[in-house]
């Protein structure tokens, strides 16, 4: 949860540029950034990623429930950390700390919650490649779409950065 809260520190442009070019606020005043379309795009992304994580762990890979839990939990945490990292425009030291702290808490939970995770399975390369494949399938298409959108339809503030 720490990386999501650290997004409050993210800035599109510096304060000086924002004061110099007040037309940057035009997009915000028209409500394009915070529209129903934007909201439903995030809902669609969430449904896609949730489906990939759950069905990837459930259908494609394992028969044992405790392994499905470990794979899906790990993929979910890594996907969240990657998605926050992809959406940050200006990195702040607290954002880096939040990402590392969340990753550390994830690793700590694997160690401390042994009743919920198979410790032997988590240490195998089988677990590692399954988590990496599911995480890549859930994040890579979204990263490619973001890259293409930034390339062909950049936001107005990116021209000033």
From TrEMBL:
Lineage: Eukaryota, Metazoa, Ecdysozoa, Arthropoda, Hexapoda
Protein's name according to its UniProt entry: P-type ATPase C-terminal domain-containing protein
Pfam families: PhoLip_ATPase_C
Organism field: Ladona fulva
Keywords assigned: Magnesium, Membrane, Metal-binding, Transmembrane, Transmembrane helix
GO cellular component: endosome; plasma membrane; trans-Golgi network
InterPro entries, per the entry: ATPase_P-typ_TM_dom_sf, P_typ_ATPase_c
Annotated compartments: Membrane
Parts of the chain that traverse the membrane: 39-59, 65-86, 93-112, 127-145
Keyword Magnesium among UniProt keywords: yes
Membrane topology: Multi-pass membrane protein
P-type ATPase C-terminal domain: residues covered: 2-154
GO molecular function: ATPase-coupled intramembrane lipid transporter activity; metal ion binding
GO biological process, alphabetically ordered: endocytosis; phospholipid translocation; retrograde vesicle-mediated transport, Golgi to endoplasmic reticulum
Superkingdom of source: Eukaryota
